[in-house]
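Dear Dr. H.,

I hope your travels went smoothly. While you were away I took the liberty of generating a structure for the chain from your last submission, since the lab meeting agenda had it listed for discussion. I wanted you to have the full record in hand beforehand rather than looking at slides cold. The sequence, exactly as received, is reproduced here:
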Amino acid sequence: MATGCRWLSRLPPTGRAERIAGVDAPRVREPAGDLTVRAAAGAGRSPRTGFFASLPPERSMKIIDLIRRDMVIPQLKGRTKRDILQELAHHIASHRPGLDEETIARVLIEREELASTAIGEGVAIPHGKLPGLDEIVACLGRVAEGVDFDSMDGQPTYLFFVLIAPVSSTGAHLKALARVSRLFKDREFRKRLLAAADADAMYEILAEEDAKY
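The corresponding predicted structure, in token form, is as follows:
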């Protein structure tokens, strides 16, 4: 399995890092490569000079500051892409008063229709922007059996890390996506999340990994 910066490079190039947020990214399948760029839906020409060169520094951002303990779902019930996105939207809206489930679902589904957010190695990062939101909202879900999420490596997807950002927060949105990509490129971290007994254990594993960087 590829490691390091090569973990995320299977996205088709689209030329601008801002397309990580899901505007104008074409739905194109490409051969397996490096997953970091795929998290951006093909935001640059190469992992070093395209995507990462265009992203704001993400060292000061901590994922644990974006996700609450009650935003971890140890077993999603959905078995299709739409069902999983609806379920994630329902969970987020149920735990964040003022957020509308159908609006969240629509934002996630519309982004997914541009290009799959399943970046390979069993990971997907559904994301989008929501009017009226004043901070980034994150949610982590797991399907132990794995599902077909139209991943570009053709493999099942097990872990879903959702990021919903305010419409005006392009910089913070890109930082969060870069941070999540960095964490999930680690194979052992992914294995620990899949083996965790419950939501609390998953949250603690995430916090521990997040503290390393």
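Two observations you may find useful: Confidence is low (pLDDT under 50) at residues 1-34, 40-58. The helical segments are 35-38, 47-54, 81-95, 101-114, 170-184, 187-195, 199-210.

With kind regards,
E. W.
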